[in-house]
Design goal:
- The chain contains 22 helices and 13 strands.
- The strands form six sheets. A three-stranded antiparallel beta sheet has the order 5-4-6. Strands 1-3 form a two-stranded antiparallel ribbon. It has a two-stranded antiparallel sheet with strand order 2-11.
- A hairpin with a 2-residue loop joins strand 8 and strand 9.
- The chain is globular.
């Protein structure tokens, strides 16, 4: 009996092993075979492009929480300080490596890099045989641009990052690659090389269109890289005017020459830049492409999910009221005899209201940038804002963002319960590139050329009233600077920096500019002191900024995410002066 029992168990065991082997041998479903994928290099390149817009409000690739919410331009918004994990990015004092948003951003940007690495392997193995030598080389250059784009984002936020390229991928060395193997300057050199490959290989116009990158976009990115490192190494003690590298500033001018001599230029009306029907105009040097479901015949379209929380409360079906302009930003648009009120713009709180007489005049770009009570929302009188269009006015006030949404009459892009729009995310628009050029020209003592750029931008602003904001004409006054106004570098620098704030407000740039100029701690800590006492009428708000403080030699960059530090213990090191 015992023998029979043992034989039975042995037979069952052998059947189980056979069954397991049979099960294991079943090909998986829903997975693309690696060899088949690499045999289609053009599709692998398309997948790398698709990663550009593969973002979400918890990991926005436009870096809205890091460039805007962390600055003096913007409050987080939403239902209160606990709504999302972005509150520490705004007040800095409670910032640690723990917010899940930091980890998601890191992970998702590396997912984009992974797609680029796989595309480069596919092109290496099958590019010429499938596409021909010329197209394969062009596609490889496009992928190098995309990989440079993702790495620039990572380096901008996290500083200490591992460099994982196609060689690391092919040799499966990802979990042996440290994040301190290269210095900040060495990492920038690698990013610059990615864009140099694109610049040296790509034509000025992509022959197959479709939102592909080109030589001019690569030139803009090269200018931005050199401008960033021209001011120093990112930390305030070693960044700023006293650390300027003139040779790098010359590179900025050299690469922006290519943009100046291209088909790109200033769009005639400032307001048109932020309407979806103009999203691929001559102003758009490079942008992440979006679509409406009615355009591309898909269920949901390819919407901009980075900005999905940023619609006005009560104006949209799901307007979550994030990305709220600060009172300090609104005050910065004040003018006196048509010029900025540099030294006393924030002496008192002002806000324009229809029907209320005031001698205070404003730069017209205010009415294209900030939604305010009593004024038409995005130019449409049928959707005039009131104080009811703010979700938590006692915390975040009554202003709302305008640039990242279409007109209300056009409705949402996304056909469902979440709000999203077919609004392209500009990576570079022409005016941004010209402001980079002006910044470099000032530091190279080419002051008249810098003044001409600033005045061109202000002239466009002056001509951007009648078409969209004629209702605000009596509140607007803007002038160009007189000939010879830039008599010193200091004056030119102040005017160019001010112009960048007004022109690029709410476009996710402000904090990175303050850091580049070496003035983040001075600007932000002064802002916290005044902004915590602001009010709109009788409504006080922003009092939570009592807790805010920016610490130089620490807060310049965000901490390496906790999950990344401990995924492979002791592989990564933390940024300076963060405890974990």
């Amino acid at each position: 009996m015992k023998l029979i029992k043992n034989m039975t168990m042995a037979i069952l065991a052998s059947l189980a092993v056979a069954s397991c082997n049979d099960f294991i041998d079943v090909p998986p479903t829903g997975v693309i075979d690696g060899n088949k994928a690499y045999s289609q290099p053009d599709k692998m390149v398309t997948a790398a492009y698709a990663a550009l817009g593969d973002c979400w409000y918890t990991y926005p690739f436009n870096l809205m929480p890091y460039g805007d919410i962390s600055s003096d331009d913007c409050y987080k918004g939403g239902s209160g300080v606990s709504d999302t994990g972005y509150h520490p990015m705004e007040i800095w004092t409670t910032l640690t490596s723990r917010p899940g948003e930091l980890d998601e951003l890191w992970y998702r940007l590396y997912c984009g890099i992974s797609r680029c690495n796989r595309a480069l392997v596919a092109l290496e193995e099958n590019g010429e045989s499938v596409l021909g030598a010329e197209v394969a080389a062009r596609r490889a250059a496009e992928v190098h641009f995309l990989r440079g784009h993702f790495y620039f984002k990572l380096l901008t936020v996290f500083r200490k990052i591992p460099w994982i390229d196609e060689e690391v991928f092919k040799n499966n060395l990802q979990e042996q690659t440290r994040n301190d193997a290269f210095t900040y300057e060495e990492l920038f050199a690698k990013v610059i090389r990615e864009f140099e490959i694109a610049y040296e290989t790509l034509p000025d116009e992509a022959p197959d269109g479709g939102g592909r990158t080109n030589r001019i976009a690569a030139a803009a990115y090269l200018a931005k890289c050199y401008l960033t490192i021209a001011w120093g190494d990112g930390y305030e003690a070693t960044n700023g005017v006293s650390h300027i590298n003139a040779e790098y500033m010359k590179k900025v001018v050299e690469y922006t020459d290519a943009v100046v001599n291209s088909r790109f230029g200033y769009l005639e009306d400032f307001g048109d830049i932020f309407l979806p029907e103009y999203k691929n105009s001559k102003e758009s040097v490079f942008a992440v492409q979006t679509s409406d479901y009615s355009e591309d015949h898909t269920q949901f379209g390819r919407a901009n999910w980075s900005n999905m929380l940023n619609g006005c409360w009560g104006m949209w079906s799901c307007g979550w009221d994030f990305h709220k302009p600060s009172q300090n930003l609104v005050n910065a648009f004040k003018t006196e005899n048509g010029l900025p009120m540099f030294d006393h713009y924030n002496d008192r709180t002002d806000y324009p209201e229809q029907g209320v007489a005031s001698s205070q005049k404003w730069d017209p770009r205010l009415f294209h940038t900030v939604g305010m009570p009593t004024w038409p929302y995005k130019y449409e009188a049928a959707y005039t804002m009131t104080t009811q269009n703010s979700r938590t006015p006692n915390t975040y006030g009554y202003y709302t963002s305008l640039k990242d949404v279409p007109q209300r009459s056009n409705g949402e892009t996304f056909n469902g319960s979440w709000q999203a729009f077919a609004m392209n995310d500009y990576v570079f628009r022409y005016t941004d590139v010209m402001l980079m050029r002006a910044e470099a020209l000032v530091e190279l003592d080419r002051l008249p050329e810098a003044l001409a750029i600033v005045n061109d931008i202000r002239t466009r602003a002056k001509n951007s009233i009648d078409k969209h904001i004629g209702y605000a004409a009596d509140w607007c006054e803007i002038s160009t600077y007189p000939t010879g106004y830039f008599t010193t570098k200091e004056i030119g620098r102040k005017c160019v920096q001010w112009e960048r704030r007004l022109e690029m407000a709410m476009e996710n740039d402000r904090y990175f500019s303050l850091r580049r100029w070496g003035i983040a701690s001075m600007t932000l800590n002064a802002y916290f002191e005044t902004e915590k006492n602001v009010a709109y009428g009788n409504q006080k708000y922003a009092e939570y900024l009592n807790e805010a403080h920016y610490t130089p030699d620490k807060n310049e960059f965000w901490p390496v995410p906790y999950n990344q530090l401990y995924y492979v213990p002791k592989l990564y090191t933390q940024n300076k002066n963060y405890n974990d």
